[in-house]
Amino acid sequence: MKNTNSRIQSFVVSLIFIFFASCNKEQSQVNIPHSNNEVGMNYLKGLEGKWIVQGGDEGVFGWEFDLTSRGGVIVERLKVGTPTEMMTVYNLDDGILIANHFCQLQNQPKLTAVSSKTDGNLHFLCNGKVGNTKSHDELHMHGVHFQKKDSSLIIWMDMYKNGSVAFETKYELFRAESDLGIALTQ
Fold this sequence. Notes:
The chain has three helices and ten strands; from the N terminus they run ααββββββββββα. It is an alpha+beta fold.
């Protein structure tokens, strides 16, 4: 009996040790996948069309959301008509809302819609895979966030390097056919 209790105690201590040894603050936060991916997909579908951005030093440029593949894919074109134009493709994969971003940095972060307490309506975070890089620590878009306002859409991107936010880019988009969109293009 004493031998059995000793084995159980050793086993429990081993499990506790393994648990604490595997948890450290260097690990990235575990993110919960978005709970209703259909709602997220419909949110993106609602963005379909042409948008205008006043990009500060970058000037005025276009931003587009196109629905394709019988409504199953949203193609986002960022900074349309500029040397730094980019593209993101959104779709459901086995019921999970994902995004593949084709960046001006020539890398391709793979993102997943996640639940978040951050302001905004829809959030995507990098799933740890960034094409055309040697390491996940290289500069890449690690998160993209959407927030609808009364007459505009705010999109911001978290740019990561070496495991932390290096900087954030933020844009306010206006529908091209809106009064503000028309005013920006004149």
